[in-house]
Each structure stands twice: as C-alpha cells, then as structure tokens.
Amino acid sequence: MISLTGTAVGDMIRTADGLERICKDALNAPWIGVDTEFERIRTYYPKLCLLQLSTPDWTVCIDPLANVDPAPLSRILGPSGPLKIIHSARQDQEVIHCELGVLPAPLFDTQIAASFCGFGEQVGYAALVDDICSVKLAKSHTRTAWCRRPLTDQQITYALDDARYLGPLYVHLDQELVRMQRRSWATEDFETLCSTEILEGSYQGAVEKVANAARGMDRLGQSVASVLALWREQTAMQRDLPRQWILADKQILAIAALQPKDVSDLRHLDQSASASVKRWGDALIESVAQGRRQAEQYSARAPTAKRSDREKSLDARLWTRLKELTGAAGIPTSVVARRDDMRALARGDRRLGVLSGWRYEFAGRELLVIAEKYIN
Fold this sequence. Notes:
Blueprint: E1 12-13, H1 16-26, E2 31-39, E3 47-54, E4 59-62, H2 71-77, E5 83-86, H3 89-100, E6 107-109, H4 110-116, H5 125-133, H6 153-164, H7 166-179, H8 183-193, H9 200-213, H10 219-239, H11 243-246, H12 249-258, H13 274-301, H14 309-329, H15 333-336, H16 339-346, H17 357-375
C-alpha cells in the first residue's frame, strides 16, 4: 500500500491570482498529476470543462470557464515544465492541446506503465487506485455534465480524486518498471504520446471504424465508404460539428452500398438521411465518384489476390510465437503487436511498429527471422 501523506484536498481555482500562484508552485514540483473533464456534445473539438492538477503537496481543480487567462498553464503543462502524470493520456493530450496549444510533456502514462507491470491491457484508473493505494473511488458522478455551473461539493471532490492518486501510482509503477527492467519500454511509448502525430488518432480512428464496417462490401463499396468517411471528418473539423451530425456511420455504409450517380439517386436512402442529403448532396456524389475512381485505379495497379495457404500458415505461426513471448513476460499481446501486424509481416510488410524500438528487441527480431526463413 502507498502512503498518501502530504497529498491534501485542494480548492476550485477561479481567479487569475489563484491560477498564477498554483502554477508558480507547480514549476518547482517533481511531478504534476493531470486529469481533464470535457464535453464534445455539439462540437467536433473537445471543450475543456475542468482541469485537475496535483503535486506531492496539493490537489486542485481549475475552472477553465471562469474567464481567466490560461497562459500560466502552458508553462507548467508544456515541455519545459515538470513531469506530467496522466492515466490513459490520449484524450487528455488532445483536450489540452485544443485549449492551450501545448502537448503535456514530459509524460508518464500510468495505464501504459501498468500494462508493462502485469496489470493487463487498458486497466482503469479506479482499479489501479484500489490495487495500489487500497482506496475505492466513488462512481456516482461519471455522467456529470461538467460544463454546467455551479458544480456541487460532491462533484468537485469526485474530480479531485481523479488527480489525487496519480502521484502515488507513478511512484509505485516507476519502481516496478525499474525492477522489471522495463522503464525504457515505457519511456519510448511515452515519448510517442508527446508527438503531435498522436492528435491524428481520433481522426484516423473514425475513418478506420467505417472502413472496418465496410469490409463485407466489394472493393468499390469499401473505397466509397472510406472516401465518404474522410470527407465527413474533414467537414466536421472545418465546421467544428460532431461527425455524426454531418453523416451517421450507417448512412455512409448505405451510400457506399447504393453508389448513387447523382443527387436524385440519394432519395432511395432512409428518411433519417434527408437533412444530410439536402445539405451535402453534391459533396456526397463527388465523394462517391472519387471512391469509384480510386477503386478502379487500385484494381488496375494491383488486382486482388487471395492469401496463399503458405502465407496463412506463416501468419498463424508468427501469432502463436508472439503470444508465447508476451505470455512469458506477463504483458498483453496487443501492447507489442496486433494480429493484423502478423498478417502484414507474413505477406512481406516490414514497415511495422513491432520491427522498431523495444518491440524489435523483445519480439520483432525473432519474428522477422521466422518470417524470412519461412519465405526463403
């Protein structure tokens, strides 16, 4: 169990003087725990509603809706400030970058660290606090509308708890990483999170989700669905609207299946799509045409070929060996590579994450030897 002495309950910071005082003190801290509460109900980009910070001496909530200049926060959350401790940092990184224009760095992600320490894949913050700190956190305010004011004392306490235990988690997990000789693994992944490329994750994920849902279609349908998903994402960003307000996933798939040649063809879609058709009809037809052209160009360059039995056998062998290695190390297989990576490796792709950095040393080198021997 980790001692929590020195971690005091903080206040809600709503004034420029209070923010300046907290940020000045935080600059001298060895680390800062960071958590955010945000909403993106009516917007594409997340709206920061609350920022929780902690150091070894205090825990506070900062109200970004209090019309206070947030510039002092950029100093402590940017790369020149202390170590930032965040649990599952991707969304918090995106929110803070949208609000302040900086990516929190240097970074320690307690969820990533925990996956290297035997806690499994994507372990939750509350579960870690329970396991490491022997504290059970309340779950009563998980659906709070954080942009509403005033917040109750109970809501503020709940929010404070989301940052209060980050320091103790860091101390424990960092010691475990050192003991298990895996700190370099974690550091490599933390540094990746501090790259601006990470901000493309949400963008790419939404497009990939549609592409995966369209896998049952022929190549033309898949191409149209992907182009429509990309158009929707770009339009949502330009107008700062939720992507589903532009076009729902099911509507993208319906258009990809219909493959209309003009706006009048779109009348065959269900009634729920009528508003989108009326507003975006011409753009939708152009996206369908673009998807058709891309599919035709791809077919001309590289006709689709089925996977050979030999390739399937190699894929299965690589996946089995990877699971053996990760099982022996007590880490989730997906932390090292996913099944699609093994399929790609089996067909000759060498531009894979498992073939670089600590993943190459841990498993990639051996998997590459197996692949090369099998192919040759």
